[in-house]
Amino acid sequence: QITLKESGPTRVKPTQTLTLTCTFSGFSLSTSGVGVGWIRQPPGKALEWLAFIYWDDDKRYSPSLKSRLTITKDTSKNQVVLTMTNMDPVDTGTYYCAHRATGSGSGWDRGYFDYWGQGTLVTVSS
Amino acid sequence: EIGLTQSPGTLSLSPGERATLSCRASQSVTSSSLAWYQQKPGQAPRLLIYGASSRATGIPDRFSGSGSGTDFTLTISRLEPEDFAVYFCQQYGSSPGTFGQGTKVEIE
């Protein structure tokens, strides 16, 4: 059974760096083809894909946020970490991590998600 | 990037009725690479449909997806009480993958 859970601060101040951790079970990020993504949802708005990381440490980022994002993995701990710099109130929202479905194809900068975490709400406010 | 417009924003129906949800893309979606998800308050999104029409594991056959190009539809043949939720579509045929804003299916 695949599960994912996000953790991190519920509130950050403008200009600060956000660090979120995704702890997962039921799969290994050292298995060929496996990827984990981060997605966010501002209140009342559409979901937005942020980043992917893969078993071979390949990393893909949303072009609009690439300069602010870093994604890393710790295979031994079954964790993926996302950092986002220079946070702004518009970055307020629920942040999800999710398992990239293996049927997503070979376009490593895109894919759909077959398992999601519950999400963590991050508020950016001074 | 491809924009996805879902309609209607809210659908008010009764249990047992048929629900038809629309997802329209601003450009053609490559290889029908479109997914549908269900989300209930406080819960993780649940994958329903991928590849426009393939049901995910464990999804009841009252859920069906159809469409190609720019127009896609999610149909729930007979609404069960547990089906009242928000549904959103996602295209993953072009980078970056994008999501629709969702359709809320509520009890009338």
The SSE string of chain A, one letter per element, is EEEEEEEEEEE
- Mean pLDDT value of chain B: 95
Quaternary state of the chains: heterodimer
* Series of secondary-structure elements of chain B, N-terminal to C-terminal: EEEEEEEEEEE
Query: What is the β-strand count of chain B?
Result: 11
**Fraction in helix of chain A:** under 10%
- Helical content band of chain B: under 10%
Biggest chain pair contact, residues each? Answer: A-B, 27 and 27 residues
Number of helices of chain B: 0
**Estimated radius of gyration of chain A:** 14 Å
Biggest β-sheet of chain B, characterized?
Answer: 7 strands, mixed
State the helix count of chain A. Answer: 0
Number of strands of chain A: 11
Main pleated-sheet profile of chain A: 7 strands, mixed
Q: What is the CA–CA distance across the termini of chain A? A: 40 Å
Tell me the strand percentage band of chain B: over 45%
- Average pLDDT reading of chain A: 95
Give the CA-based shape of chain A. globular
Provide an overview of this structure.
The complex is a heterodimer of chains A (126) and B (108). By secondary structure, chain A is mostly beta strands. Chain A is 0% helix and 48% strand. In chain A, the strands form 2 sheets. In chain A, strands 2, 4, 5, 6, 9, 10 and 11 form a 7-stranded mixed sheet that branches. In chain A, strands 1-3-8-7 form a 4-stranded antiparallel sheet, with no helix packed on it. The radius of gyration of chain A is 14 Å and the shape is globular. In chain B, a hairpin with a 2-residue loop joins strand 7 (63-68) and strand 8. Chain B has strands at 4-7, 10-13, 19-25, 34-39, 46-50, 54-55, 63-68, 71-76, 86-91, 98-99, 103-107. In chain B, strands 2, 4, 5, 6, 9, 10 and 11 form a 7-stranded mixed sheet that branches. The termini of chain B are far apart. With 108 residues, chain B is mainly β. Chain A binds chain B through residues 39, 45-49, 62-64, 96, 98, 101, 103-105, 107, 109-119, and chain B through 4, 31, 33, 35, 37, 42-47, 50-51, 56, 88, 90, 92-102.
